[in-house]
Amino acid sequence: MMQRRSALLGTAGLLALPGLAQAQGNWPERPIRYVIGAAAGGVSDIFLRIMEARLREQLGQPLVIDPRPGAGGMVGAEQAARSPPDGYSFFVNHIASHGIGPSLYKRLAFDPLKDLPGVCRLARMPNVLIVKGDSPLRDVAALIAFMKANPERATFASAGTGTSSHLSGVLLGLRTGIDTTHVPYRGTAPSMAAVMNGEVLFAIDNAPASRQQVLGGLLRALAVSTAERAPTMPELPSLQESGVADFDVASWYGIAAPAGVPRAITERLGATILAALADPGIAQRIRDFGAEPAPLPAAEFDAFMRQQVAAWAPVVRASGASVD
Fold this sequence. Notes:
Elements: H1 2-16, H2 20-26, E1 32-36, H3 43-59, E2 63-67, H4 74-81, E3 89-94, H5 95-104, H6 112-115, E4 118-132, H7 140-149, E5 155-158, H8 164-176, E6 181-184, H9 188-196, E7 202-206, H10 207-215, E8 219-224, E9 250-256, H11 263-277, H12 280-289, E10 292-297, H13 298-319
Parallel strand pairs: 1-2, 1-3, 5-6, 5-7
Antiparallel strand pairs: 3-9, 4-7, 4-8, 4-9, 4-10
Helix pairs in contact: 3-11, 5-13, 8-13
């Protein structure tokens, strides 16, 4: 009780500072920057574009997308974490930055969960296990049998160290007892190209990333990474359904804010985004992209992220993966 009272008094003191309460009440007064940890045109960018018109309408200001690719999203995350906590810089966070990254990166200059707490969760999507379009491997059982017979060819591509595509490949090896070899690329596009060109055997990456190539026959999708079949791709079995026990991976995306952004601002932004996700038109555009709206407010989102860190930590340790 005493701690809560102290916190409330501290908040009251901050609001009493000249101009701060008024600034919060007038927020936003200028464009809002959203840092993304990948290049323009990727998943983070697309989710923002889907909601862009609604956010502009409700908040009265345009959004500015600031791509800061690198290190599985950690370059962008650190940039956002170091931004002034004035409510004009946010980060599109995800499984790599706030699920896998805290265990993988040993010398982070910031703490993702403490320095970039959640505003709200946006969406989740399955990863898809893909092979070359003309591969003779037509299902997961055939892929596993091939890798056991040819361990030197059990290679997989990822969009970079620490991404869900990286750890999904590691997890497949752990669950099947196969020593898979990770081949990281600088982004999703080159990793997809590596599978199409036969440089690697397979990849397990975000469903939308390979959608057009799968439809065009350049890639073959064998299974989804979630425990159950994905509503957007009901024709594909799950890896668990295909005999890979205890495999349940979904890539997720949300909005995080630098620690210290006034709660009134994060609550307003969170409520605005959650209302946008509830709009049938916006929700359908997200589904058309290959994802599912997965709204969570701040407190639940933070709890979810703590669970994700706890779930991925043993996978990172078992893989031996580490980034200094």
